[in-house]
Amino acid sequence: DVKVTQSSRYLVKRTGEKVFLECVQDMDHENMFWYRQDPGLGLRLIYFSYDVKMKEKGDIPEGYSVSREKKERFSLILESASTNQTSMYLCASRRGTGSPKNYGYTFGSGTRLTVV
Amino acid sequence: EDQVTQSPEALRLQEGESSSLNCSYTVSGLRGLFWYRQDPGKGPEFLFTLYSAGEEKEKERLKATLTKKESFLHITAPKPEDSATYLCAVQAGNTDKLIFGTGTRLQVFP
Question: Which residue from A63, A100, B17, B44 could staple onto B13, CB 3.0 to 4.6 Å apart?
Answer without folding.
Answer: B17
